[in-house]
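B., you asked whether I could sanity-check this one before it goes into the benchmark set. Here's the sequence:
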Amino acid sequence: MKKLRPVKADEVIKALSKIGFKPIRQRGSHLIMKHDDGRLTVIPVHKGEEIGRGLLRKIAFDAKIEPEELIKLIEEA
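And here's what the prediction gave me:
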């Protein structure tokens, strides 16, 4: 099992797009992504910064996927 590691926001956005999430709006640095079935998550987009492990875990929880699945999607992206 791989551990969560900090990753860039672009990688998370690309990974979530693969499973059907689409960006619906952005307010400042917060990109809101929504799935057709109603799942919603917020991705903070800060240039030059990475999203930490705790926030990645929260994004996976919001997306109703396991953190391991999110890691796999990021690595494939």
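One thing to flag: The radius of gyration is 11 Å. Otherwise nothing jumped out at me.
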